[in-house]
Amino acid sequence: VLLAALIASTFAVNADSPMPTAGTPPVPLMWKVSDADNSVYLLGSFHLLKPADYPLSKDVDAAFADAESLVFEMSPEEMSSPTLGMQMGQAAMRADGTPLNSELSPETIKLLDAWTTENDALLQSMGLTPQVLQMFEPWFVGLTISITEMTKQGLDPKLGLDANLAAQAAKARKPATGLETGVQQIAFLDGMDKDEQLQFLTEALSQSKDAETAKLHHAWRAGNAKVLWDDMAVEMKKDYPRLYQRINVARNDAWVPKIEKRLTAAGTDDALVVVGALHLL
Description:
This protein is α/β, with parallel strands linked by helices and 281 residues long.
């Protein structure tokens, strides 16, 4: 749901950064924190992945096997609930009755018209005609464009690391919980101010055909923390300082005490915590 936080950052991966070869398992960012009697694994997720991204590296499998429980940004029940999408759509509806174009520049309107024409068949299959898109706030339309472009590149939310590990946890009967609710996540996006929303929509349209998503995917596969920090987090902090503070820093501050309780709790149970890679940087 918070994919916008990643897509919103305009970054370029260093051409010299190591790129995994075809058939090499991804090595996502992962840390292990331990005290005298138990451990917490912190694993960086990518919310949409490809079939070729599996299997993962053996250390991720080992962490999953060692953990008695899993923790995600939100619970698996909410992740798979159809009501989450309905809640997001309701939150994104324009309240004043004006069309989206009423607050867009002529240049952005032209880009949006061109994009909807090019993707008309796909949008129709989703029930999102150009007329329907006019009923939503810019952040929602920008997010729709970003996710649509990612799926056209073969990335699938059903194959995201969160979804994959949640399914594995259910199969292994390991308890899985969330650090926050879907309503809270939607509020972070819907709380973007108008300038941020318009900036996000304009960038989503202008970059929809660029290779930025592929570069981000490669960086995640390589587990290159320096590249991800220098070329993603730093850019987001610069271009979206209020959103970065709200969507990354404030949420981390809320999560840390909850994760720490997993470490300090009595007993020897270990936990695998799976959150967007940006949070671990």
